[in-house]
Amino acid sequence: MLEFVLERGNYWAIIGLMMIGLYTLFAATNLIKKLVGLSIFQTSIILFYISLSRIDGGTAPILYGKDAKGHGGGHDEAAGAHGAASEAAHGASDAAHGAADAAYGAADAAHGAASHGLEHVYSNPLPHVLMLTAIVVGVATLAVGLAIVVRIREAYGTIESDEIRETDLEVARAEYAVDQADEANPV
Amino acid sequence: MMDWILQIAPAFAEAHAPALLILLPMLAGPIAAFLPGGGRVAWIMTVVVTGLCTLLSLILLAQVRSIEGGAIISYAMGGWAPPHGIEFRIDALNVLILLLVSVIAFLTSIFGWPTIKAEIADGKRAMFFGAFQVCFMGLLGVAATGDAFNLFVFLELSSIATYVLVALGSGRDRRALPAAINYLLMGTIGASFYVVGVGFLYAATGTLNMADLAVQLQDVGGNRAVQVGFAFILVGLGLKAAMFPLHQWLPNAYSYSPSFVTAFLAATATKVAIYAMVRFLFSVFSLDFAFEGMSLALILAPMGIAAMLACSFQAIFQADIRRTLAYSSVAQVGYMLLGISLGTAAGVSAGMFHLVNHALMKGALFMAVAGAVLTYQGTRIHDFAGLGRRAPWTMTAFAIAGLSLIGVPLTAGFQSKFALVSALLESGWWWAALLVVFSSVLAVIYMGRILEAVFFRAPANPHKEHGEAPLLILVPLWILAIANIWVGVDGGFVYGLATDAAEALFIGGAS
Q1: How far apart are CA A135 and CA A129, in angstroms?
Q2: Chain A: residue nearest B85 by CA?
Q3: Do A168 and B175 touch (CB under 8 A)?
Q4: Comparing C-alpha atoms, which of B436, B452, B432 is closest to residue B354?
Q5: Do A187 and B461 touch (CB under 8 A)?
Q6: In this complex, do B153 and A133 lie within 8 Å of one another by their Cβ atoms?
Q7: How far B69 CA lies from chain A's nearest CA (Å)?
Q8: Domain spans, chain B
C-alpha cells in the first residue's frame, strides 16, 4: 500500500496543487488572489502533462550519439536512419551514406519499426510542446484577467468580490424601487 | 442545389477552404485592430471577412453534400499527415456549425455598427472589431479541428477574446466588469478541466487526433484513466456550454456585455461548446462504453430537464429583458442536452435542429432588443412598455422570434420542439416529453410578460419620440425573423442538415 502511494508521488503532488489552486479560486474574495489560485491550478496541469512524458531512464528528447547521424528525414524514415547510422559509424562519406540509407532502409524497416531504431531512450517531447502552448494561453488569460481587475478597481474602488456584489445589489434594489414607484403611479 | 457555388468558386478556395476559413479572420483580426478611422474601416473589413467566411462555409457544405450520405473532408495542416499532424476534419456535423457561426457572424457584424457607435468609445472600436474577429476565428477553429488539443487552443483563443468583448460593456454599465471576470474564472476552469481530460486520454492512447482516438479507445475502453478523462472533458465542456448547474457565468455576461456581443455570443458560443461535447460523446467515445450510457442517462438528461424547468422559472422573475433571455438561453441548452442524452440518431438530430433554430431566434431577439436599447435606452421590461406602437417593425420581428422561442406552430421553435418530443416518445420517455411541454408553458409566461408590455401597455415614457431602429439593424433582424418563419413552414432543409449531421456521427463518425 505504502509503495503504491509513494510510487505515484508526482501525481499526489499534482492533485495537491490542483486542489490548493481550486480552493483559493473559490474561497478567496480578493480578485487578485482568485487569479493567483487560477494560475496555481493551471500550473498543476502543466506538471501533470510533463510527468506523463517522463520515461524511465529517458533523457532530453534531443538525438545524440549514434541516433543523431543520418537523421535528416521525417518520422517515417526513423527506421531507415538506423541502418544509415551504423554505417556512418564506420566513417563513410556523406555520399556513400546516402546510398547506404536506401539499401538498409528496406531491411531495417521490419525490426526497427517497433523501437524506431534509436539507441538511447528519450522522454516524449510532445507533451512538452503542448504545454508550451498551454503556458502561452495561461499567460494570456492571466493578463486579460489582471487588466479587467484594474478596470474593476477604477470603476468600483475595490477588488473584493463580496464588496462588489454588495454594491451591485444596492444598485439593483434602487432600480427595483424606482420601477415599483413608476408602476404604482404611471405618468 | 448547392452545386452552383462549386462552379463559381476559384480552385484554391475549394482546395484550401478549411484552412482559409480560419486564416482569414486570424490574419484580418490583428490588422483590423490597428486600422484608423474611428472603427468604420475596421467594421467594413469585419463585414467583408465574415462574408467571405460564409462563402467558404457554403463551399464546404457543397463539398460535403456532393456525395450521398456526406463526404468527410480531411485537411492536413501544413501537409503533415494525420494522426501526427494537425488535421481539420469537416463532416456533415461540423459543416453545419461552421455555416451557422459564419452566417450569424456576418449578420451580426452588419447589424453591429450603429450599436457599437453608441456603446463603445471612439478609440476602442477598431480593437473591438479585432477582438471580435479573433473570437470568431476561435469558434470556427473549435468546429473545424480534428485534433483534441488543437480544440483546446481554439476554445481558449475564442474565450479570451470573449472576456475582452464582455468587459467592453463597461462603457454602458460597470457591472460588465465583474461579469467578465467571473466568466474568465469559470471559463478558464472549464478549459483547464477539458485539457486534463485530454491528458488522460493521451496517457491511455498516445494520440490526440480525434478519429485516431476513437479507434484506439476501442482497445482500452474500460480503463480507469479513460473514464476519468471522460468525466473531466464532460464537465469542462459543460461549463463552456452552460450546462445547468455550471451556467452561473452566463446571465450576467449576456446582460451587461455590449448589445452586439450579446447577440453574437447568444447565437454561437454555447452552441460551439455543445458541438464539441457531441463530438466527444458520439465520435471520440462511443455508446459502447458502459460509463457513457450511464452518464447520458444519469447526468445529461436530468441536468437538461433541470435547466429547462429551473431556468425557465428564473426567467419569469427577471425585470431585465436581457436577463430573461439569458436565463431562457440556459433553458434552451437544456432542450438540446435532453435531445442529445437520448443517444439515438433521432434525439441527436432533434438536439442539433434545436441548436440551429435557437441561434436563429436568440440572434433575432437580442438584435431587436439592441435596436430598442439604441433608440430608447434601458433594457428593463418597464422601459419596453408601449414600444410596439413606436417601433412596429423592430417589435414585430421581436414578437416573431419570441413566438418561435415559445414554440408556436409555423415558427422554427415549433418544428424543433416537435422533433424533440417525437424523439422522446420514440424512446419511451413520455414523462420527459410532458416536461418539455410544461417548460414551453413557462416560456409562454416569460415571453408573454414582455410581449404584453410591448404591445398592450401605455408607453412608459411618452416624452421619448424616437422611432424605429436604423436600417442597418432592421435588415439583418428581419432576415433572421423570416428565417424563423421559413424554417417553421418548411423545415425540410435545416432538418435535413441536422439529420445528416446526426447520421454522420452514428455511422461514419468513428472511422
Answers
A1: 10
A2: A75
A3: yes
A4: B436
A5: yes
A6: yes
A7: 34
A8: 289-511
Q: Residue A22's domain is classified under what CATH number? A: 1.10.287.3510
d(CA B270, CA B37): 33
The Cα–Cα gap between A181 and B367 comes to: 29
How many domains does chain A fold into? 2
Does residue A16 sit in the same domain as residue A47? yes
Taking only the tens of pLDDT, chain A with its 187 residues reads 888 888 888 889 999 999 999 999 999 999 999 999 999 999 999 999 999 888 888 888 888 877 776 554 444 444 444 444 444 444 333 433 443 344 333 333 333 334 567 778 888 888 999 999 999 999 999 999 999 999 999 999 999 989 999 998 898 888 778 777 766 665 4
- Pairwise CB contact (< 8 Å): A148 & B462: no
Is A129 found in the same domain as A48?
A: yes
> Do residues A131 and A48 both lie within one domain?
yes
Mutation for testing the B interface, residue in A50, A123, A137, A161 having most B CBs under 10 Å: A137
The pTM assigned to this predicted structure is 0.88
A59, part of any domain: no
CA A55/CA A125 separation, integer angstroms:
11
Candidate from A49, A148, A187 with C-beta closest to B177: A148
Q: Say yes or no: A82 and A48 in one domain.
A: no
The domain of A78 spans 65-115
DSSP string over B199-225? HHHHHHHS--BHHHHHHHHHHHTT-HH
B contacts of A140 (beta carbons < 8 Å)? 156, 160
Flag whether A89 is in a domain. Answer: yes
A60 domain residue, yes or no? no
